[in-house]
């Protein structure tokens, strides 16, 4: 899942970003509305966590633009005001959900995951191929009943492949979906992480490398 955090209070913005990365999400963080518009023009996000009172372009205007463009990105609006009028106004602008500050981080994570499910085609609650099963909600993966000790990146790669059985995902697509703005697009991060994932999955191999194409689980 790719998430954009737009919050002008830097300490809070960085804290949200760090916490969501620990949950296995790819997260970019910006501190003003103008930077948010630049990111949204260049990258497809599943969810935007959007503060309302932003410098540059106001959060309301960003939300209005996203709704006007009818993009698949879901908006979780944050505000210091929790009045009913503010919530109604934010939802009326096109926000998909609304969370007043202060908030419990566990609730933020739950709301982001719920919105991400609405931003992408529906997938089963448990993903499986052969003797491999993956439970996104529990952050658990198994092969032949044995729990796999996967890093957040390895887990996210496996989840992407299992969610699109038979489809070839290029290294560029995987880099965009699993890594964040700090990833070097010219690095071998996908290749090296895929190597570790294959080693942990063991035999027989299930991830196929498609020459000059990418990676695939399942028949075409």
UniProtKB/TrEMBL annotation:
Q: Mind telling me which InterPro entries this protein's record contains?
A: CheY-like_superfamily, OmpR/PhoB-type_DNA-bd, Sig_transdc_resp-reg_receiver, WalR-like, WH-like_DNA-bd_sf
Q: Which GO terms describe its molecular function?
A: phosphorelay response regulator activity; transcription cis-regulatory region binding
Q: Which organism is it from?
A: Nonomuraea phyllanthi
The lineage, from the top, is:
Bacteria, Bacillati, Actinomycetota, Actinomycetes, Streptosporangiales
Please indicate if the UniProt record lists DNA-binding as a keyword. yes
Name the GO cellular-component terms: cytosol; protein-DNA complex
Q: Which PANTHER family match?
A: REGULATOR OF RPOS (PTHR48111), TRANSCRIPTIONAL REGULATORY PROTEIN CUTR (PTHR48111:SF36)
What's an example Gene Ontology biological process for this entry?
Answer: regulation of DNA-templated transcription
Q: Which domain of life is it from?
A: Bacteria
Alphabetical UniProt keywords: DNA-binding
Q: Under which name does UniProt file this protein?
A: Response regulator
Extract the PROSITE patterns matched here: OMPR_PHOB, RESPONSE_REGULATORY
């Amino acid at each position: 899942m790719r998430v954009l955090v737009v919050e002008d209070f830097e300490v809070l913005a960085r804290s949200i970003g760090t916490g969501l990365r620990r949950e296995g999400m790819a997260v970019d963080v910006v501190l003003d509305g103008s930077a948010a518009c630049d990111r949204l023009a260049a990258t497809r996000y599943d969810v935007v966590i959007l503060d309302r009172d932003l410098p540059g372009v106001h959060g309301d205007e960003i939300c209005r633009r996203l709704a006007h463009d009818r993009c698949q990105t879901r908006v979780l609006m944050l505000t210091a005001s929790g009045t009913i009028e503010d919530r109604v106004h934010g939802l009326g602008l096109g926000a998909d959900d609304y969370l007043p500050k202060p908030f419990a981080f566990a609730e933020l994570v739950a709301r982001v995951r719920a919105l991400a499910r609405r931003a992408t085609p529906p997938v089963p609650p448990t993903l499986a191929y052969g003797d491999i099963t993956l439970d996104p909600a529990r952050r658990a993966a198994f092969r032949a009943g044995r729990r796999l000790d996967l890093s957040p990146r390895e887990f996210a790669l496996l989840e992407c492949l299992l969610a699109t059985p038979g489809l070839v995902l290029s290294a560029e697509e995987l880099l965009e979906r699993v890594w964040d703005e700090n990833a070097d697009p010219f690095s071998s991060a996908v290749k090296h992480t895929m190597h570790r994932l294959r080693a942990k999955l063991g035999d027989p191999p299930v991830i196929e490398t498609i020459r000059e194409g990418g990676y695939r689980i399942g028949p075409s």
